[in-house]
Automatic annotation (TrEMBL):
Protein name listed in UniProt: NAD(P)H-dependent oxidoreductase
Family: Belongs to the NAD(P)H dehydrogenase (quinone) family.
Residue ranges occupied by any Flavodoxin-like fold domain in the UniProt entry: 1-215
Native organism: Kitasatospora arboriphila
Lineage: Bacteria, Bacillati, Actinomycetota, Actinomycetes, Kitasatosporales
Pfam families: Flavodoxin_2
Keywords: Oxidoreductase
């Protein structure tokens, strides 16, 4: 395996830092190649702006199109090109982060915003026509596998089906499905450590062993069976629905199809 670990925590001695270090030593110890993008240590620029696209930046700025034009011209900034090269090198990507405000820390969202450019992560392949806006399960990054390793402050019961925070699968859906599966990356079930603010030092060996076991079984882990292309659903409202009827479920990118 060639694993890229994208790590988002400001404190090297944090629990997240320890889990990242353990992932490196475990995977390397098992003979795998590992590279790390430690976003805080890299002082990663987390916001998209015109400077990302140089002479390919339009006025007014068109983030998607300009990012694609800069990508095609090989003119993206060196920090973004380096991350894209790591993604193409990797067959497995691990994201290590604490849950902050129900999602990833801003620096990691900013990594996605800048690295997953048009024409690199999306807008490629057979179904790249943006009129449909649907490319789930295919793209340049297809064939890679990703795993979220997440720590939460809230206890596990708060993330159960009727817990106060809602099911963890729902909270992670925008990341696992919207960000990772959209450009074609298969997503493995997440490794979630709950209630970590109350974790004691003596709990760590058990946690570390659980993480080690997950890491050593990555290759045999089945990905989440997300539903791929959804073209048919777009026709439901106009063609197949009676007035006022609302079909259940999501179509791509969180859009809920509704009858008129
Ligand atoms: C801005 C912000 C927003 C947040 N939003 C949410 C939210 O929406 N939902 C939610 O559930 N939580 C939330 N939290 C809580 C957050 O998810 C947790 O604080 C975080 O996951 C803990 O991870 P850490 O790496 O920072 O832990 P740390 O604080 O580094 O460690 C936690 C504990 O683990 C133990 N430990 C750490 N490393 C080791 C080691 N190597 N060996 C032995 N013991 C160790 C220590 O006892 C330590 O007290 C939020 C926190 C912040 C700051």
């Amino acid at each position: 395996m060639k694993t890229l670990i994208v790590h988002a925590h400001p404190e090297p001695e944090s629990l997240n830092g320890s889990l990242k270090d353990l992932a490196v030593s475990t995977l390397e110890g098992a003979g795998h190649e590992v590279r790390v993008s430690d976003l805080y240590a890299m002082k990663w620029k987390a916001v998209v702006d015109a400077s990302d696209y140089g002479s390919h930046a339009s006025r007014p700025l068109k983030v998607a199109l300009d990012s694609g034009r800069a990508f095609d011209a090989g003119a993206l900034t060196p920090d973004v090109l380096a991350e894209q090269e790591k993604l193409l090198w990797a067959d497995t990507i691990i994201f290590q982060f604490p849950l902050w405000w129900y999602t990833v820390p801003a620096i990691l969202k900013g990594w996605v915003d800048r690295v997953f450019t048009y024409r690199f992560a999306y807008g490629v392949g057979e179904h790249s026509d943006t009129r449909y806006g649907e490319r789930f399960g295919e793209g340049t990054l297809a064939g890679r596998r990703a795993l979220l390793s997440v720590t939460t402050g809230g206890p596990e019961s708060h993330y159960a089906a009727r817990g106060i925070n809602g099911p963890i699968d729902d909270l992670l859906f925008p990341i696992q499905h919207g960000i990772l599966y959209y450009p074609g990356i298969e997503v493995l079930p997440p490794f979630v450590l709950y209630g970590t603010d109350r974790m004691r030092a003596e709990d760590y060996p058990q946690v570390a062993e659980a993480w080690r076991q997950r890491l050593l079984t990555l290759e045999s882990t089945e990905p989440i069976a997300f539903r791929p292309q959804n073209f048919g659903d777009y026709e439901i409202p106009s063609l197949h629905l009676k007035e006022g009827l609302e079909p259940e479920g999501r179509t791509g990118f969180g859009l809920h199809v509704r009858g008129r």
